Amino acid sequence: MKTRTLLFIAVIFLFTSLQIMAQNNDKHILVAYFSATGTTARAAEKLADVTGGELYAITPVESYTSADLDWNDKQSRSSVEMKDPKSRPALKGKKENIADYDVVFIGYPIWWDLAPRVVNTFIESHNLKGKTVIPFATSGGSTLAGSASALKRSYPSLNWKEGRLLNPTDEKTICTWIEKLGF
Question: What's the predicted TM-score (pTM) here?
Answer without folding.
Answer: 0.85
